[in-house]
Amino acid sequence: MVAIEAATAAAAAAEDPIRAAEAEAEAKVEVDLEGKGGEEEEAAAKRRNGFNQGRRRTGGRTRRADREDSVRRTVYVSDIDQQVTEQKLAEVFSNCGQVVDCRICGDPHSVLRFAFIEFADDAGARAALTLGGTMLGYYPVRVLPSKTAILPVNPKFLPRTEDEKEMVSRTVYCTNIDKKVTEEEVKIFFQQLCGKVSRLRLLGDYVHSTCIAFVEFAQAESAILALNYSGMVLGTLPIRVSPSKTPVRPRSPRVMSN
Predict the structure, then answer these.
(1) pLDDT reading at 91 higher than 60
(2) What is the pLDDT of residues 137-189, one digit of tens each?
(3) Is residue 249 part of a domain?
(4) Cα 119 from Cα 101, distance rounded (Å)
């Protein structure tokens, strides 16, 4: 009984880290319940299980609160001139408050680029809304409250070699993907419109209502072409396409324990 439940917990951990704690807690409830002192062990296991569930709920609330706070501190800027860099954009908006992150997305050769700017506090984001209509380059920008937070880039995922930098030039980052859309459908969508897809990673979880994807093309020209399809509907939602800052690395092989 113990071996079976332990194996179940290990398998769940290997397959899905989100379920790992749940599987472990469930296993503890059933271990040794039929042995000596089964009733006492069952009560203790239920207490542990209840504690773990409460801790998971608390952790989930904390992450959700952090994400909502980040959204309140972020503005969405559109109609950005192709000559405007992230550094320049951050400098302009720093007059409203401390800028902690700035991300320009979209085709670098198009005036239809957009950006997300996150401030250190809500006041900075509110002040930034007054910059709507400001001329940056040849076009007045539009500034609106953002509906999403800026996803941080983990430094360990950034390109480390020249080969990986070349891979990044062939890769786009897609957001707002309908959860009903499969990885194969994303591949077909981009392959028919832009060119051969050499690698693709579709990612989603139980927290966010949409998925994201990293699409690596065989040719850099295909990645540039893909940027033009930002706003096109895939499934039931308009996707957002921007240059990727990270390469799509092969999945690491899983090591199964005996």
Answers:
(1) yes
(2) 888 999 999 888 776 555 555 556 777 788 888 999 898 999 999 999 999 99
(3) no
(4) 7
Q: Which of 110, 145, 180 is the last residue before a domain boundary?
A: 145
Torsion of CA 142, 143, 146, 150, to 10 degrees: 90
Q: Interior CA angle at 142 toward 137 and 143, to 5°?
A: 120
pLDDT surpasses 60 at 14: no
- Domain ranges, residue 238: 155-243
The answer to whether residues 160 and 222 belong to one domain is yes
Torsion of CA 214, 211, 132, 113, to 10 degrees: 30
Residues 186 and 226 reside in one and the same domain: yes
Count how many Cα atoms sit within 13 Å of the Cα of residue 241 in the half-sphere of its side chain: 27
Q: Which one of 70, 85, 111 terminates a domain?
A: 70
Residue 253 belongs to a domain? no
What is the reported pLDDT for 165?
A: 80
* Whole-number pLDDT of residue 2: 42
